[in-house]
Known about the structure:
Layout: E1 7-9, E2 16-19, E3 30-33, H1 36-44, H2 51-70, H3 74-91, H4 96-111, H5 117-143, E4 151-155, H6 172-179, E5 184-189, H7 196-207, E6 211-215, H8 220-225, E7 231-234, E8 238-240, E9 245-248, H9 251-260, E10 265-268, E11 274-275, E12 308-311, E13 318-321, E14 324-327, H10 330-338
Parallel strand pairs: 4-5, 4-7, 5-6, 7-10, 8-11, 10-13
Antiparallel strand pairs: 1-2, 2-3, 8-9, 9-12, 13-14
Helix pairs in contact: 1-2, 1-3, 2-3, 2-4, 2-5, 3-4, 4-5, 5-6
Bound molecules: 5-S-methyl-1-O-phosphono-5-thio-D-ribulose.
5-S-methyl-1-O-phosphono-5-thio-D-ribulose binds at residues 46, 49-52, 95, 157, 159, 163-164, 168-169, 196, 235-237, 247-248, 307.
Amino acid sequence: MKPFRAISWSPGKRALRFVDQRELPARELVRDVTSIDDVIDAIRTLAIRGAPAIGVAAAIGLTVAVRRTARGDVRKLRELLPWYGTQLIAARPTAVNLSWAIKRMLVRATTAADDVLLQSLCDEADNILAEDIASCAAIGANGAPLIHEGASILTHCNAGALATAGIGTALAPIYIAHERGIRLKVYACETRPLRQGARLTAWELSRAGIEVTVLPDSAAASLLRDGAIDMVIVGADRIVRNGDVANKIGTYPLALAAHAHHVPFYVAAPISTFDRATPVGASVTIEHRSAKELGRLPRDVYVWNPAFDITPRRFVTSYITDVGVKASTMSSFAKFRATI
Ligand code: MRU
């Protein structure tokens, strides 16, 4: 069950193909890009967004861009790879999937002989794409049993099919439960300032025939207090060694409100989002974005526009992963972390 492909190759593997998310919900525009500047621009401007999607896009984008620039010159191709990789990683610093995918591509290149280098890069990008599709399906299968008949689920930002190559992370259990005939409804936080919830989550869920209600971010705590929500499910850009979660700005206040009102708070993410190298949430580089995203403001005011926040592990009920649902208690999380 995959209503559309947010990220793929173009036929012949000459270009990175994606649904341009800047245009949604007004129009479904599919774009092909082949140059490193266009791939970086698409990631930076959120035409392609969501942690797993930018990882897959970087792998395919790196391959098509080095092929285009090197034009069969293997030495040049080897020189370009780390340089393009560094630029791609800098495009969005918070989601670990981006650097994870680039590192995999570079390791693959170092072990490939010259005559099969390009083919090896294509194969590795294919692996990353296929693994993401499979991870999403596994997250969906593992998380769906948590959703009971008639459940009301609150989510934030967009962690759906648009944010991955597959059926999403936070939305995957919802898609699978819906497919199994479980009656459910979703509340989607608007997600200021770029409105990923209102524009993207609402678009893809209503397209799939799932009831969705959009609310301003500032209304979420009241909805939780009123007992209207059975569970919160969000995605993640990075889950660090102590279990803290970096995700779209507004996730932390949602977790606080869910905790205060005794509503389970789930974080859905593939293993590629777990970052064992970063010790605590405070060490994560949080991307800050342009003041322009906040719209028209009086002159001479300062703007603070972080794209992500950190939710401490203690506010997470469980992590819904591709290898199972993992409890967030310190000892359970430490045991799980040792296996990945
Ligand atoms: O800035 P965005 O839209 O890329 O932020 C996306 C999120 O925060 C998602 O929740 C996260 O990347 C997980 S997507 C499966």
